[in-house]
C-alpha cells in the first residue's frame, strides 16, 4: 500500500508543487471511519516535501508516524480541557508531559492551539477560561524550556468581528473586548501568531446573487476598494485578513502580531441550498489560493508580509455532522484519489479497512479533529469540529540533526520529567 501511495503522490506532485509554499498548510481531518493510517500519511508528506502540519488534537499515532519527517506540527488542546487547565495549572503540566514530551525532538512541534473558535462560541465559562488556560499551558512549556520552540495560541472565526467591510472599518465585537484585549496582549508578549478561520465560501453561500463568484475564487474581477485607505482588493480572503488586521490595530497590537489563516477552503459538494459547492469551484478556489501563496505575497495592507495559510482539508470526512458540505472539503477522497479534477490522474489507494485511522497530506498541512491524544488522564478526545462557527514552492526539509539542538531538548525533557 505504501508503494501505491507514493505513486499517487508522485503523480500529484507536479500540480501541487507548482502551487505549494513553505507558508502553505493543509487541514488534515480524521472525523471518518475510512481514512488511511498515519503511516500512509507520512509517505504522502515525505513525497511532497510538506513542511507544516496542523492537528486539532495531539494524536500520538500521527505524531509518532511523522517522527524524523522534518514537518513542523501544530497540535491542539480540545475545548473540553480548557476549563480544567484554567482551574488547575497542574493539568497543563500533565498534558505537556503526556502529549508533547514523548514526541520531541523526534517530531517537531512548533505550536499548540488551545480550543477552537472559543470566543465566538457563547459559553461564558469557556470565555473566562480561555486565557488562563493558555497562560497555564505556556507556563508548563516554560518549565520544560520549550517556549522558544512551541508557541501557544488559539483560532478564531470571523464572528469575533462586529463588521468586516470595508476592511479598515473592522473592529472586534464590543462584548468580546474584555476577553480579546488581554488575549492579544498575551500573544504579543509571547510572540505567538493570531489565527483566523476565514471562509469566503460562507459569504457566497449566504448571498450568491450579490457576491461576485470570481471575487471569492481569486479569478479576474473588478475588485473592490476601501475608501478610507485607498487600497484595492481583488479577492475576498485578503479583505477578510486585513479586516482582522484593522481590528487588531484598533486594539493597539497590530504591529506586534503575525496573522495566519488557520482554516480556509471550499466544498466540492453540498446540500441543495448550499450554493456554489461544486468540484469546479473547489478546484478553482484551492488551486488559485495555492498559487497565490506560492508567490509569497501579502495582503494589500501588508504587502511585504507573506501570508501563511492552511487549507481545509486533506480528506473528505464521512462522519462530520452538519450539512453535506462539511463532509466534502477534502482535496482527496479516502482512497487517495483527487476529490475533483486537479489536472492529473492518480492511482487509487486500495486495501484500506474502515476504522484504520487517518493521516496524510501534502503541500504543507493542517490536521483537523481526530480520535484524540492523551489528555493527562482525561481519556481520548471525542469532540467533532465543524468547518467554522462563522456561518510551495516546495523547499527541501532542513536538517534536524543539529547536536546542540537535540542536546538542549533532551536536557529540557530531563528537567521537566524530574
Descriptive account of the structure:
The structure is a single chain. The chain is of the alpha/beta class. Helices cover 34% and strands 13% of the residues. The chain contains twelve helices and twelve strands. It has helices spanning 2-19, 38-47, 60-65, 82-87, 89-99, 124-143, 177-190, 200-206, 213-216, 236-250, 279-294, 403-417; strands spanning 24-27, 52-54, 72-77, 108-116, 151-157, 161-163, 171-172, 194-197, 224-225, 232-233, 259-264, 308-312. An eight-stranded parallel beta sheet has the order 1-12-11-8-5-4-3-2. It has a two-stranded antiparallel sheet with strand order 6-7. Strand 4, helix 6 (124-143) and strand 5 form a beta-alpha-beta unit. Helix 1 crosses helix 2 (38-47), helix 5 (89-99) crosses helix 6 (124-143) and helix 6 (124-143) runs parallel beside helix 7. The chain starts with a helix and ends with a helix. 53% of the residues are buried. The model is unreliable at 1-22 and 343-415 (pLDDT under 50).
Amino acid at each position: 500500500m505504501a508503494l501505491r501511495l507514493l505513486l499517487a503522490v508522485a503523480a500529484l506532485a507536479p500540480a501541487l508543487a507548482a502551487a505549494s509554499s513553505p507558508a502553505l498548510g493543509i487541514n488534515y481531518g480524521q472525523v471518518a471511519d475510512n481514512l488511511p493510517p498515519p503511516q500512509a500519511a507520512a509517505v504522502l508528506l515525505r513525497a511532497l516535501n510538506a513542511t507544516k502540519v496542523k492537528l486539532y488534537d495531539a494524536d500520538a499515532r500521527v505524531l509518532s508516524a511523522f517522527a524524523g519527517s522534518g514537518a513542523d506540527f501544530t497540535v491542539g488542546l480540545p475545548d473540553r480541557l480548557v476549563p480544567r487547565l484554567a482551574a488547575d495549572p497542574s493539568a497543563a503540566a500533565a498534558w505537556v508531559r503526556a502529549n508533547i514530551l514523548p514526541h520531541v525532538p523526534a517530531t517537531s512541534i512548533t505550536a499548540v492551539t488551545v480550543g477552537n473558535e472559543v470566543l465566538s462560541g457563547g459559553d461564558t465559562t469557556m470565555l473566562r477560561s480561555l486565557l488562563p488556560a493558555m497562560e497555564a499551558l505556556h507556563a508548563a512549556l516554560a518549565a520544560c524550556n520549550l517556549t522558544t520552540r512551541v508557541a501557544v495560541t488559539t483560532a478564531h472565526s470571523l464572528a469575533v468581528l462586529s463588521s468586516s467591510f470595508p476592511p479598515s472599518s473592522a473592529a472586534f465585537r464590543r462584548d468580546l473586548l474584555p476577553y480579546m484585549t488581554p488575549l492579544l496582549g498575551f500573544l504579543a508578549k509571547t510572540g505567538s501568531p493570531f489565527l483566523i478561520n476565514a471562509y469566503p465560501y460562507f459569504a457566497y453561500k449566504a448571498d450568491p446573487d450579490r457576491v461576485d463568484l470570481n471575487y471569492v475564487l481569486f479569478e479576474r474581477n473588478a475588485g473592490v476598494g476601501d475608501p478610507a485607505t485607498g487600497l484595492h482588493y481583488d479577492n475576498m480572503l485578503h479583505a477578510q485578513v486585513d479586516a482582522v488586521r484593522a481590528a487588531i490595530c484598533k486594539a493597539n497590537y497590530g504591529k506586534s502580531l503575525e496573522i495566519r489563516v488557520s482554516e480556509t477552503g471550499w466544498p466540492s459538494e453540498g446540500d441543495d441550498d448550499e450554493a456554489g459547492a461544486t468540484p469546479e469551484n473547489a478546484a478553482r478556489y484551492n488551486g488559485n489560493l495555492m498559487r497565490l501563496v506560492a508567490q509569497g505575497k501579502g495582503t494589500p495592507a501588508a504587502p511585504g508580509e507573506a501570508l501563511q495559510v492552511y487549507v481545509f482539508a486533506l480528506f473528505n470526512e464521512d462522519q462530520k455532522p452538519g450539512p453535506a458540505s462539511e463532509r466534502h472539503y477534502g482535496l482527496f477522497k479516502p482512497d487517495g484519489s483527487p476529490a475533483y479534477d486537479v489536472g492529473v490522474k492518480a492511482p487509487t489507494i486500495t486495501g484500506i479497512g474502515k476504522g484504520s485511522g487517518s493521516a496524510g497530506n501534502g503541500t504543507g498541512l493542517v490536521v483537523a479533529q481526530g480520535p484524540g491524544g492523551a489528555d493527562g488522564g482525561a481519556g481520548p478526545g471525542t469532540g467533532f469540529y465543524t468547518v467554522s462557527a462563522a456561518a510551495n514552492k516546495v523547499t527541501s526539509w532542513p536538517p534536524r540533526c543539529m547536536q546542540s539542538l537535540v542536546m538542549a531538548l533532551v536536557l529540557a525533557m530531563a528537567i521537566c520529567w524530574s
